[in-house]
Each structure stands twice: as C-alpha cells, then as structure tokens.
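Protocol step 6 of 9: fold each sequence in the batch and record its structure tokens directly after the sequence line. For illustration, a two-sequence batch is reproduced in full.

Sequence one:
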Amino acid sequence: MSNSTEDISKHFKEIPPFLKVFGLSSAYPSDNETFTCEFNPSEELTHSNGMVVQGGFVTGMLDCCMAQFLIYKAEGKQIPLTLDIDVKFYKPCAPGPVKVISKIVKEGRSICFTEAFLYQNDVLIAGSTATNKIVDSPF
C-alpha cells in the first residue's frame, strides 16, 4: 500500500481481508490534505445482473478511505471508530476501477470529521461524511 513517492506501509501492520474483497490496489497520501484509495470491485460485489456494485460495498470503500487517512495521520498509533456515516449515491457504480479521495474536515483530540468521494472514470459516483472517534490502537 504505497505510491512511488512515499512508503506508508510502516503505518499499516496488515491489509485486512475485507480490503482484498473490495479489490484494494493502492492507498497513498495525495498531498497534505487528501488521501486516495484505489479499488477494483469485482462482479461478485454486484446486483442487477452484475451491473451495479451493491451500495454497502460502495459505503465500505468510502469509509475505508476516510479511516486509512486517519490511521496514516496517526502513524498507526491510533485507529478511528466510525460513529456515523452519511452516504449520498449519485450514479450507479459498475465493477471495475474506482478512486476514492478522502479529506479530514475537522480534527479534535478524540473526534474527527471526514469526507470522501468515490469516482469512476472521473465521474462522481458517491460521496460521504463521517464522524470518527479516535482511540489508541490495540495492535
């Protein structure tokens, strides 16, 4: 889970199996303000004759990118617990490559507000906001 400019694997002890199910292909800080996760959801995550990725999986990808950014910022020493998440679906997500870009909107001592947007072929598919409680990592 790194890009060519920075190795961030030291912040992540393992890639959880659910990220493999989502088809995670990379995760990296885009700049100081945003974090990007790239996924390739398969037809196994779809309904409607394999045409549409189920909304819960889209939500999971959005949530994952926001959480990975918080873990990255905490250098793996803390993890977020999602207290709530609000998702808006604008277009159907098809199987295939997607990019999720997350941002930390407001950061407190133990509560953070985040947002993320999922794009496919440069088209906005879904967006979300979340409230996260930050706790010490048990790992």
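Sequence two, same batch, same settings:
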Amino acid sequence: MMFKFLGLRYKDFFMIALGTALFSFGIEIFAKPIGLVTGGVAGLSIIISKIFSITFNLDVSLSLLNIIINIPIFIFSWLVNGFEFVKKSLVGILLVSFWLFVFQKLSITIDMQNDIFVAAILTGVFDGIGLGLILRTGASSGGTDMLANLVYKLFPKFSISITLFIIDAIIISSGFFVFGLVNTVYAIIVIFISSKLINSILGGLRFAKAVFILSQKTNEISDRIFEDLNRGNTEITCRGMYTKKEGHMLFVVVWPKELVKLKNIIGEVDPGAFITICSAQEVLGQGFLTDEL
C-alpha cells in the first residue's frame, strides 16, 4: 500500500534505498569521524553533533538530527508546494535517517590512518554516487534542496541554484569555526568530487560518439557502415553556403571502440571526406540501450 500511496515503483524505491544507503555510509563512516562538513542537512548535522559533544559531552546521532532539521522544512514545503512535490523526498529523508542509524549501530570502523585526504575522496565518491541515484528518480535526500525550492516559490527573484549555493556556503563556512580551515578545504574537495559524479549519473554514463560525414560517396560509406559495423545511419540533405551546392551528409552514432574502424572505412572509401566527431553523453534506443527510469 505504501508504494501505491506514494506513487513509487519498486525500481524507484530500490534506487532511493540504495542511494540513501551509499550517501549515509559516506557521511557516517568517513565524514563524521574526521569532521568534514559537506553542506546540506548532513553537514549541518555534523556541526550540531560536534557542538553538543564539545559543550555538553553528548553524542547526538546524525540520524536524529536529520529528522529534526528536516521536519519543519518538509512541513513548509508540503504547505507551499503540495504533497505531490515532497512525497518522494519524504522517502529519501526517512531512509537517510534509517541508514545513518544502522551504520551508527553497526559501529563500522575503517582504518584510514587519520588521512583526511583519503576520507575526503571516499566521502565524495559515496555521497556523489548515492545522491546521483536518489536524484535520478526525481527524489531527494531532503533538506537544503527542498528549502531552496521553498525560497524560490516564495521569492521567485532568487533562483534555486543560487539559493542552494548560498545555503551550502553558509553551512560549510560554519564548519570552519568548528573544525578549522584544513577540514573546510577538504570539505570543498568532497563537494567537487560528489558534484562531478552526480552530473555523470544524471547525464548518463552511456557515452558514445556522434559522427557527421560530408562526402560525395555517402552511399558507399553507408553500405560499409551497415556491413562492417552493423550500424544504422541517416542521410541528411544539406547545402554548402559557400558553393551553394546541394549535397548529402551521413549521421551515425557508434561506441568509442568502433570509432577507429569507422574512420578507417571512411578513409578507404573517400579520403577527402569531411568528418565531425562529437561526444554523445547518453544514447538510448535500438542498437544501444533502453532506459525505463
């Protein structure tokens, strides 16, 4: 009933569960012990947890803090944007707190020999992959992204990206006063690594090459592509603006490993062909991959 109520497919729920597990692992196992404030609610939770530890000698769990901080943000987002907007984020928030609690209780210890650089890389990798999987389903881990959307809804002149940057910058800067300059610099490295991985996952990891071929022998080249590469291709009618002559151009998409063979085919058929090769970050469809996300 929960899946149907929240409108989640099993595949989406699995992706969110896996993503929140990886994200929480990176925060609880690598970021918290060394004091890497990576922005977001997780980073704010690390700061508050450290303050309670120093001031009151209390070990407040990140799991509890994650819930407490997210409750008012979630309620306001619900009231302003509606439940449809926040329902997937609710799952993300609850699962992040669940996994943080699990990893805290498991007391997993990984000996990094107090190397903050290694901790920063591992945090960035786990957080980046985890958040990428979560965001790919249209959900979030809650917190600052919902808050940024809320601010944008109330004050449209503040873009979501700028608001999110400001919020995370404030959180990371606050970490400077608790953990010092070195940890703050490494926290920025974490964000850089995780953002690159998030962009790769959201943009796709199915890299291919899109090739445009201008030639007087497009039919011969097309036949060779069919025969030697077993790849479909498209002929496009074009016009040279300098010569004003009509011509034809082939468009074909291949895997990187097929590119050398394609260039050899073109060179054999028409050494004077003009070739443009572009990177295609993600390719879906017949002959490549399908995506049901």
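Proceed to step 7 once all outputs are recorded. Observation for sequence two: The beta strands are 208-214, 234-239, 246-254, 274-280.
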